[in-house]
Fold these 4 entries.
Entry 1:
Amino acid sequence: MTNSHVSNPIGTTDLLGAVEAGGTKFRAAVLNSNLGIVNQIRVSTTTPGATLKAVTDFFASHSSIGALGIASFGPLIVDRDSASYGSIAPTPKPGWAGTPLLDHLRDATAVPAAIQTDVEAAAVAEHRLGAGRGYDSIAYITVGTGIGAGVLIDGMPFRGRDHIELGHMPVRRVDGDAFEGMCPFHGDCLEGMASGPALQARWGATPASLSGRNEVWNLEADYLAQLVRVLTYAFSPDKILFSGGVGARKHLAPRIATATHRHLGGYSVSHATNRDLIATGALGNDAGLMGAALLAESLLASSPQTFSG
Ligand code: ZN
């Protein structure tokens, strides 16, 4: 607030801190005002204590940042009326339920901090910097270990009391598919039928080794097209981007587009003629981290501490 950065007064507080909190690894980075990565680390997600210590040690040992953005795996408490705002919600992931991610990292770095889900952050990044540029409303879907969706309406994340959980929507079983589904909560919801682990369990092989098998990817596309149908009818986005270890696979987007055409049954206004509705994200594995950096950037932009010249 005062002259704590006298040793390097020009631009020090323009540096952005970004954390992508993932279920298998955390990535933390310091970025400059052009969103270039100055420094970064990746640490395995183990216990909250060990993982968060590695992250806070990283920020303590690098150039001071002006603000911190966090993109977190879910479920995340995003209800601002809750005393647990910014904490991990009850989750099967051992040890993480109730972890006050936002409060902990804000206290440790002593800078303004904000949090959103990883898919919301990735959606914002694709909208600002990637395949969603120039569109008013987009949806971003990641298909990997789980299935998550973020929706931006006029560039702003759509949320209710909780963040959306469209990965757990029900799906209509494709004729002849006897796979029972593997969601611990719902069994044969979308995630239970079409996540990476579901693919692997159904076919007995890794997604990478199933390349080129039409029956595998057409079935996958059929389930994902059911989500596109819901997104189309609920939000009517201009663009729906697929990402993640399964979702970003080559040739999947056109298959989803074909299956979507069938699932819409000819009933839609604008999307019947929108051949570019479905695409693959452009930022790949960087989308979540860049979204976190953009969140930090927005805090700096609204901060009264920003240097004026
Ligand atoms: Zn489910």
Entry 2:
Amino acid sequence: MRVTFCCTGTKAEPWLEGLRAALPDAEIGVWVPGAPQADYAVVWAPPQQFMDEQPALKALFNIGAGVDGLMKLRLPRHAQVVRLDDAGMSVQMAEYVTQAVIRHFRELDGYEADMRQGQWKFRKPQVRANFPVGVMGLGVLGERVAKALSVFEFPVRGWSRSPKQLDGVQTFHGAAGFSEFLQGTRILVNLLPLTPDTENLINRQTLQQLQPGAYVINVARGAHLVDEDLIALIQEGHVAGAMLDVFRQEPLPAEHPFWNVPQITMTPHTSARTLRDESIAQIVGKVAAMARGENVQGMVDPQRGY
Ligand code: NDP
Ligand code: OXD
């Protein structure tokens, strides 16, 4: 069995070491143009040339949960796309989103600013019931996030494509359920995959339907959000602010207006990092299962785009 590694922006050596230790009988190497045909590939943001030169691939293991980058490429005809299925990401996402919700709800940015100015000042406690959190996307990450938030007794709502039942979470689905979901939401969390249906979904029309004083947490993809609509709604006062981890262009260009909006807090696409050891263990388990002809979790449906 031959496994090829083609992950843009990722240091190959530690991955190769881990894969070789776990698959001692396989030939494992970094892809270069003209490399021999492989059976399986471990990929992140590969070029089209890689796909064109590897028609015999049986599966592409994406070392992330989002496969939007891969879905834009012409893929080898018989290759299944397999995404990372949690692999240590959901707990990170739950802690990131929970801290963002709590930081906003408990006005911790305001306290921090007061303290820096030497001011010992109390703010009136806010009412939790007035801060319903709506999670868009109830997949591997969204479900974990919704459950984590309900532990803190926020009213939690969730929206997905198909109907879902989750303890302690009021659920909505499909286009028909979207407005009702938004209208009851004050803190909006985005954990949708980026597909033609979800691109630009967080726009003026969407944001306007949120409760006044809305807050936006985008941890999925930058292209879900219409940047100028968010800024406009903040300036108009309907949206109180946002915490953003993902952007249309990464790194965020120095001239992007987000840098100058004090109500926007940003992090550099770090809310749920790919953990190498967990990911290798998952990929190796799936390679073995596929080689036995078994189905594995995390198979991407190219029709749905996730
Ligand atoms: P999943 O595929 O497990 O879940 C996707 C969820 O979105 C499902 O509940 C699905 O509905 C729902 N959904 C998809 N399309 C629509 C639609 N058109 N309308 C309503 N709901 C829809 O994904 P994950 O939870 O694993 O990951 C979500 C995204 O998070 C990734 O695609 C990636 O972009 C992002 N991500 C960001 C990271 C970061 O560090 N910032 C790290 C990891 C992931 P249904 O259940 O009905 O299928
Ligand atoms: C992912 C990501 O999709 O890191 O896993 O964004």
Entry 3:
Amino acid sequence: MATLVTGGAGYVGGHVVVALHEAGRDVVIVDDFSNASTRTVDAIRGLTAGSLPVVEGDAGDQAAMERIFDRHRIDSVVHLAARKSVAESLERPLAYYRSNLVSTVCVAEVMIERGVDRFVFSSSAVVYGEPAETPVTEQTELGPPLNPYGASKAMSEQILRDAAASSGLRVALLRYFNPAGAHPSGMIGEDPRGTPANLVPRVMQVAAGRLDRVEVFGCDYDTSDGTAVRDYVHVVDLAQGHAAALDALERGEGPFEAEGTVAYNLGAGRGHTVLEVIAAASEAVGFAIPHAPVERRPGDAAAIWADCRRASAELGWTARRDLGAMMRDHWNWQRRHPDGYASQ
Ligand code: WQD
């Protein structure tokens, strides 16, 4: 039996595939390669002995998904395939709703048709919007979406709640905070198409000489140093959280029986400011990374970090790697791949 990982050739996806392999699970990848390189698959295969079927396809294509379930013995799904740029979602909201909602409906429909009931969904801290309190727990009220990307994740969660309430589907909603870092081998890592929107890949591309400087979006927030606070979580820890969620679904214990759908915060449980991230990255690369203050970015929350006690208690999962490890591992990937997988 195998776990189908949609979006398995992406940054988080590739690390999830490696983590599931290391946990002894067989995996099938489906990816449309719209935001991933086929070279990623070669790198993932370098870290996972044995068979790793890869299907090029769209998780929102019902016929394609039916064929995958016909050809492979799928007993669970980790659904990561989605568009995930906040800025792009503001420019192309309908593309985000089509891609992120249709794929979620399609995957759930095929699973229910085939009697496959274990579903791990890649959600995001963005569903909390601008939280009234921080750290946020899974009971924190989901604020008004700050952008169509966030709205698509909140809607996807609701779609899966409704699907689980009317079928045997059982769903773990994993709310990622800010993934960073790379597998310690330096063979897989973050390789965004075009100029990255996120802080850490931008910092690392400045360190690699691909960008001139880091623009710090706002230095007048009510935080320790005036820059915004986020909960950065090592992508290897995050990936292992998916394996822990599948194990919990397999055991069928606790809330999955009662509610069918359970949300878990996957973060480090602490916040760091933008300047602290830049300082940690500078320490990792061995020189001061150039940066300059600019205006705030519209839609940014001042501060958000996670309370992860539920994941610890029910999944037996906690993030083990700190910010320094994230920066060292991210740099280890970036310096080996200054132009991403194209450097291979
Ligand atoms: C982090 C902090 C910026 C870039 C988004 C999604 C979230 C998740 C991660 C998918 C903020 C500041 C950034 C830069 C900066 N994606 N920043 N200069 O916005 O917290 O979260 O990406 O799951 O769902 O919402 O991440 O890395 O863009 O920003 O100062 O060049 O860094 O203002 O405070 P964000 P980010």
Entry 4:
Amino acid sequence: MRGIIAAPGMAMASAHLVSEPEINVRKREISDVLEELERLRCALAECSSQIEGIMDSMDGSVDPQTIEILDFQLLLLEDTDFIGEIDSIVTGQSINAEYAVKSASENYMSKLNNITDNDYLRERAADVADLSQRLIAVLSGVDMEIAEPDEPYIAIGRDIAVSRVAVLDRDKLKGIILESGGVTSHCVILSRSLGIPCMIRTQGILGLANQGDTILLDAVSGEVIINPDLVRVQAYNDYAHKEEAKKTMLKEYVNRKSMSLDGAEMKVYANITMSSEAENVVHQGGEGVGLFRSELLFMAQTVTPPSEETQYAEYSKTAKALGDRPLVIRTLDIGGDKLISYMDIGEEENPFLGYRAIRYCLDHPEIFKPQISAIMRAGADGNVWMMFPMITCVDELIKAKQFVEQVGLDLREKGIPYDPNIKIGMMMETPAAAMDATILAKEVDFFSIGTNDLAQYLFAADRANSKLSYLNSPFQPALLRIINRISKAAAEAGIEVDICGQAAEVEALTPIWLAMGITNLSVSIPCVTSVRKRICQLDKADCVGLLEVVLNLETADEVEKVLIRFAERNIIHDN
Ligand code: PEP
Ligand code: MG
């Protein structure tokens, strides 16, 4: 069967079908309304204590988002609108509490589901459905808990509710397969933070798999195989063996210094999109967050942008989870392919060349200022840095910095704690910025090279168009030459230069970044240790020689071949 890969990887274990208990809710007239309301009160109290019990039973490894959702369900049990509606259905129509809960939650969910342009909110409807299911089960005297198998398993369900996932044994849970589900559904977020594979929209799986069947979840090629044949099993065992050996070997690099054999340091940071990932960054040995993409917070809203308080809470939580490690928060990078309904960017012929990121923010102080304020306030709680996306010329940078100055004055006047010396940086994503790197370097504390966009704009090649991937290749010599130019300008100005685009995690290029004097590489969380291992195997002096050769090559193929040959020699040398 095929599905959509939501968290990559492979797993083989027995099927554990997680189905919702089927409770037939019938409408019943009641004679004693007060007695029914009392029955409802008792059920609400029982649900609260069940959810609190789930929270108490979770160990420290649980992700903060699970706690947030369970907290949301606890709040909903006390929400005067939601509970008031149930009460008034019972009272006004003299009908049973189960039916009233079902009606009130269906109303609530349909409001959330009608918000058609917001996946995040639509998926929160699942949390309401889960709560109402629990409430109805308690009212009907049905036990919600299901026995977990003793052996390792792959959980299979339609879209497994958070209160179910929260109690699953993390040691036995090897993968998740959902019939529905979206990329921001809770199971997906959880599987990513646990590092286990997950596939969604695997339609029909519940009808075909039986409890205890062997399931091969291949979230690399996007396939699920029920009761695989021996050839498949052997192929999986080989894969698992190699992965296990790799994981064990890479564990050694979690706490190692990111330093070459001859003592050159290049730190490894991670890229994240929400606070719940910060703990995993620390766990995997990330020395900081080099790119917090703040867009998701904005995309999760439907009508208005997230308030300053909401943003502050999220940034501050992330900063605190990272301790003294740097957290680079990028201000809103909207536009291009990332559209938000409540922001009126307007129809554009060429959105990637349009009114996006800093260009939009500079014209919209009502959006830009609260974000800057939230970032500066979070700076009082941790090691927070601020970064502007898509800066093309120095005027934009100066205007953005004026906002920072103004917001700082406002915060000081109001006596709100903030970091007055917050480090300010910019993404290097356009050829114009690279050409003027020397001028721009005078205005910032750091550059962070966004190789995804830099390649797109340098080669005039849409980064999402697979037919143009040869132009968006990280081995293109013109891209390497422009990055070299940027890093030289940074070195001359004495500022940091980081790489946070995809090319940062291409291990064949690690020697090139080391030779260029890149300060930090910011990569996806699973790549932190493997990139660090590569740095630890290198000798910077050799890499400088390699860089000289590479910068004089003419084609991407030549660059790739030279780098592969270097890696082979280097690895032999390392062994
Ligand atoms: C980049 O352009 O390389 C980058 C890191 O930013 P994004 O991928 O979010 O555009
Ligand atoms: Mg970019």
